[in-house]
Specification:
The structure is a single chain. The protein is of the alpha/beta class and 377 residues long. The protein has two domains: 147 residues, Leucine Dehydrogenase, chain A, domain 1 (Rossmann fold, 3-Layer(aba) Sandwich), CATH 3.40.50.10860; 168 residues, Rossmann fold (3-Layer(aba) Sandwich), CATH 3.40.50. The protein is built from 13 helices and twelve strands. A seven-stranded mixed β-sheet has the order 9-8-7-6-10-11-12. Strands 1-2-4-3-5 form a five-stranded mixed β-sheet. A hairpin with a 4-residue loop joins strand 1 and strand 2.
């Protein structure tokens, strides 16, 4: 984006815009189908952007912009040859598959000429959606195995990365994974895999929530039973053993590790004081507001930023896009998540700043370094 345009954008709707981006913003509408979508390509200095497509009824341009910027920082921090982008479609993520297919195919056709964006799965979309997109425009990631993909949600790539980050983070806070109590807000494709990978390291899932509410059992929740409920399309609150509460009750559950793995801005200035934990692993994108993040830091609660902790999914996508294998994807996730988590937490400790500040500084340095190699316009 030319620098001359930045002041106008900052004064208007895109008040977060700066010299890093966004490069382009596209609105997609198809009135006959009822389709309304948004694509934000933020920065492509390192290569074509990778970012998921989410479906939700209450998305916005601002949210899409913030998510795209998070992907810019995430991909840069992970050292991937990709920039950041994001797309959103207004709608019910639980719409019938036939309707979802029509939406995805129409949206893919509309963005087909935006060659510097590679679409991937996110909330409300999955491997089948990515197969429909590739069928229309020839590019997507997170594909089904049957057509050569690495189904990152199925294998739990993001959750695997969260567990790797937790192993490093425990050295920087009063947490030991063996016996650690875990609470997961948003028990979906990210949250349930994070719980399972952490359980393999000795942690205990004591609370989880989904759209139906919260289930708590300080003795430990049955992961197999929770997975069976999710596969059958039921809420985890139907689990027989455990105390039930509303969706917000998960914030009040005492834990050692708290994982937000659903929507943006679930921890805010108005509820952060209720959080009773030692380590926050940000499994969702932008799940904690800036004010809440500072409040956590002031209270001595370690919060590993989203674009550091949850990079496993996009790392897997990049490996798939480059023709790599599932084994290579897991190896790359393990290596990059450990290195980046340690670098950020070391820098935060040495400079007496929050992990968020350290992570942003690291990622922006890498984005600007990539930009320095581009031809000046």
């Amino acid at each position: 984006m030319p620098k001359a345009d930045a002041p106008a954008l900052q004064q208007g709707l895109f008040r977060f815009a700066d010299d890093l981006g966004p490069e382009k913003i596209l609105h997609v509408t198809e009135p006959g189908l009822g389709l309304h979508g948004i694509l934000v390509v933020d920065n492509v200095a390192a290569g074509p952007s990778i970012g998921g497509c989410r479906i939700a009824p209450d998305v916005s341009v601002d949210e899409c912009f913030r998510l795209a910027r998070a992907m810019t920082l995430k991909n840069a921090a992970a050292g991937l040859p990709h920039g950041g982008g994001k797309s959103v479609i207004f709608g019910d993520p639980a719409m019938p598959d036939a309707e979802k297919e029509r939406y995805i195919r129409a949206f893919a056709r509309a963005i087909g000429d935006i060659r510097d964006y590679i679409i991937g799965p996110d909330m409300g979309t999955n491997e089948a959606c990515m197969a429909w997109a590739r069928d229309e425009i020839g590019r997507s990631v997170g594909l089904p195995r049957e057509i050569g993909g690495i189904p990152l949600d199925e294998i739990g790539a993001t959750g695997f990365g969260l567990a790797a980050a937790a192993e490093v983070a425990q050295e920087f806070c009063d947490v030991t994974l063996e016996g650690a109590r875990v609470a997961v807000q948003g028990y979906g494709s990210v949250g349930r895999h994070a719980a399972r990978f952490l359980a393999e390291k000795g942690a205990i899932l004591v609370a989880a929530s989904d759209s139906g509410g919260t289930i708590v059992n300080q003795a430990g929740l049955d992961l197999d039973a929770l997975d069976a409920l999710k596969r059958s399309g039921k809420s985890i609150v139907e689990l027989k053993r455990g105390q039930k509460g509303d969706r917000e009750a998960i914030i009040d559950v005492a834990s050692d590790i708290w994982i937000p793995a659903a929507r943006p801005d679930v921890i805010r200035a108005d509820n952060v004081a209720r959080l009773d934990t030692k380590l926050v692993l940000q499994g969702a994108n932008i799940p904690v507001t800036a004010e809440a993040e500072q409040a956590l830091h002031a209270r001595g609660i370690l919060s590993v930023p989203d674009f550091i902790a949850n990079a496993g999914g996009v790392i897997c996508a990049a490996v798939e896009y480059a023709g790599g294998t599932q084994t290579a994807a897991f190896q790359t996730i393990e290596e990059k998540l450990r290195i980046n988590t340690r670098e950020v937490l070391d820098a935060a400790r040495e400079s007496s700043i929050s992990p968020r500040e350290a992570a942003v500084a690291m990622a922006e340095r890498r984005v600007r370094a990539a930009m320095s190699y581009r031809r000046a316009m």
